[in-house]
Amino acid sequence: MSQTSIGKVSEDRKDTPIDVAQSLVNSPFSNTATVELSYPVYPMGSTRAWCSVAGCVLLQLCSLGVVTSVGVFQEFYINTWLNHFTPSEIGWITGMVLSFTFCLGIIGGKLYDAGYGRVTLVGGSLLFSFSLFMLSLTQRNKYYQVFLSHALGIGLGSSLILTPTTIVVAHHFQSRKAVPLGILGASGSLGVIIYSIMLNQLIHFKLGFPWAIRIAAFISTGAFILGNILISIPPLPPRPQETRVSNYREYLNWPFVLTMIGSGFLAQLGLYFPLSYGQLFALRHGISPQVAFYSIAITEFAGMIGKIFPNYLSDLYGPVNVMIGCLTFAGIMSIALLGCGNLVGFIVFSILYGFCIDACISLYLLTVIAIAPRQADLGKALGISFIPVGISSIIGNPVLGAILGNTVLVWWKGITFAALCIFSGIFIQLIGRYIYLRKSRKSGGENTWKL
Length: 451
Prior knowledge:
Blueprint: H1 17-21, H2 46-67, H3 70-81, H4 87-103, H5 105-113, H6 117-135, H7 143-172, H8 178-206, H9 209-230, H10 244-249, H11 254-271, H12 273-284, H13 289-292, H14 295-306, H15 309-317, H16 319-336, H17 343-371, H18 378-404, H19 411-442
């Protein structure tokens, strides 16, 4: 990979940010030479760039804060609100909302690439808020009502928010994207901390389920309004004229496919087990509700650090290398959950595992951005990369619910399944890394281990 220092540019020629952006095609699978700048390029200026980061943070904080608090909803639905249904049946609700959020991200990405970024963000915000209000009106043990509002409505709304907000930040920062994207990723963790504590307290000790959800809906609506005001949609990088078929064929290269299978599907299938069933695990092992209800918040607080510090390391050592290390530690911690049935052990597990899981999710997106065939089509690349994450989400909770059982939950089976998925994903990702680096060297790139 050739590097061009900004100091080598002729003084009598001043390139605009858009001119510089035209040279950014960061993949050995493209015929265009790569130019890596030594400082950030802001197509609309640094002020608008960081204001857009703040706006995207607000949107992801509220949407992912609700969506990823699956442990709160899973435990409450199983024990109270939908207690006439099995954990596997309830798992379809929490699994579908995660699946739509990630799997349908390709729709938001395609709309953004087509020039409808603003409309997509506003539409997703409206649908999300409306569905959250509808969830507050559902009745106890009315499965279809909860499924329509929670799984379909909230899932579709969040899918129109997640991918476009990621693209906005990626396009505002034409180089050194890791830190702003890490901040954006940390907003989801902060949202889970806020919403999990708030919902647990309001549902179990204060106002009950309907008003707890209404309060969450009012807060989300206000944040969505402010966030959409702060966001500026940057101009799209120019792309060459190509056929539709050839555009999609670019993503059928082995490194991209193996990354989606290994890190996007198998690893994510195992990583979500503690998030979905961690709170229920704590309650069933005699840990007090006052502590168990904070388990998700503890996990995500550690995850905030996990989405920033490893992202910084990825600029130094490569996102794939750092992600493989975090996945390995997460797999070890999954097995360690078998011995964390006491208060101290469970808190330590929540902290260490939270750091790993959020780092892996954030680094997966950075990996996709790094190996995407064209930077001008980041919306398409991110949208495609969310599909395996969505598939793992939709089947993960029902499958884990069936493995655990209906009445007597057999925890070692679910934990073993999660760990096997993570380690299988690591193995496949290592193969993809090897193929990518070999292809890069053959195409004239640097002989480096960093990816």
